[in-house]
Amino acid sequence: MGAMLLTSCGSGGISNTTGWNYNDSRNGGFEDVPYVEQETGPGLILIEGGTFTMGRVIDDVNYDWNSIPRRVTVSSFYMDETEVRNVDWREYLYWLGRVYGADYPEVTKKALPDTLVWRSKLAYNEPFVEYYLRHPSYKDYPVVGVNWLQAMDYCAWRTDRVNEQILIREGLFDHFPQQANEDHFTTDAYLAGQYESGKRAEGIEDLNPDREFRNVRMDDGILLPRYRLPTEAEWEFAAYGLVGNSFQELITNRKVYPWNGNYVRNDDPKDNLYGTFNGNFVRGRGDYMGVAGNLNDNADITAPVYAYPPNDYGLYNMAGNVSEWVLDVYRPLTFEDESEFRPYRGNVYQTKVRDSEGKLENKYDFVSYDIDGVLYFMEQFGKQTEGKLRPEEADFMASVNTVLQDAKQLDVDRKYDAKDEKVQEAVALIRANEDISIGAQLIKGFSDYIESTPGEIRMRDVTVEENIDRRNYRESDYIDYVDGDKASSVFYDQEGEEGNLMYDWGATTLINDRARVYKGGSWADRIYYTIPATRRYLDERQASAMIGFRCAMDRVGSPRGFGY
User: Fold this and answer.
1) How many CB atoms lie within 10 A of CB 220?
2) Cα–chain-centroid distance for residue 264?
3) What pLDDT digit, counting tens, does each position of 432-445 carry?
4) What is the pTM (predicted TM-score) of this model?
């Protein structure tokens, strides 16, 4: 009778299709683990998804025509309760310095926020340059001066630290502060069997009769999905918090801001915050904080991340304080092309690198660079310093460029490891010449183009050849998919032009495949930009004193949770 009950209810005891027992070493040990639903990661809130009208809700005062209303659906996901704080970023920098500082200090340099974003030609902002990131008075303020690439690196690092802590909590690992260089925990390296240090136990019991123990797998539901930036649609959906304005399947009140009504102050006379501002933004010309004795938002620049009331999802500062990076590449007419379900522009499909036998190649034990980016930096640095360098410095620059050109040729020949060795040779050459005053600038410029660090699993872009019979996609990079053609560009009459010809960056436009969307208003913006539908863009390598970010995570399985 027990077997009949297990079969009839489709539990994890017996297969409905074969009649074989699950989790039984006597028949091979296929496992169907008991699982309820996804654990909520540290700092996250579940955002129940659904359909909404994405785009402009008031007049387009800038006449950008880049946010036309359209109906889309967003799946449930998780999102940080607050922006990432200065103390969070300092924790990140400390870890990088401890793990990479001795042999690869350039990895830490890449993660340093640009504190000089606070400078203004006709304002005295030096105290923020010196103190905002480091002083404990600002520890709970949102980190700024972080570009899009740095934010993405932080999300990847946070994924690994959270999953490492989960394995420690489960008794499989001990705290192992001696991690260094490639010998540190990453989720991908652990799942690939390429990280063993710090283990407290051999693993969990393996029901395969040929093995005694095994590592945790994603099948077990113990490890969490990746932290990442939210997509533009996810961020806008979460900012509105329409879950508080719905009755059955009706949205009873459309929102302009993340709060109800058309006022920027709290207009609930029963609330003890009645009359106070709902966010941190510029009230009017020259008014960033109000009148002494009754400050209107109690913040001259940013404010602590819990300083204002949350929206109906429990998210703080979705209007004001800092604008926030999202995942998408910017296009003004995105609304014409994107999917109605989980819309997003920016897909670049990758896969893990495997050898001729199909096994994963060993993780990186060196720093991998974007050689095109390094060469671009050297070209621009050369232009800026032309006629200013001493003869020995100019000769040194020529020597470094010679090594880098050799690295570029190796990259063209698809000898990627040899390419990275050549770039490392250039880095070693710079470090060996301590008398060259421009060395520190060169190392910092190189660090901005680090692609992979020691300990990461090797990845590559997918190719057309391996997707011959695939219908849903063929190539790797779909950033500029259905985004114009040569006949639409300024190069329509020129032969041999390659790449996306719609965007002659720096000449006719500031839009290219590196232009990333940021959403929401900041402490230095007028109220118009706090409307979640507004969208702006900035190059992914640039930063601002007005832009921060928060992380998101995929919701796996039920949109609301089985415990709902």
Assistant:
1) 14
2) 30
3) 987 888 988 999 99
4) 0.93
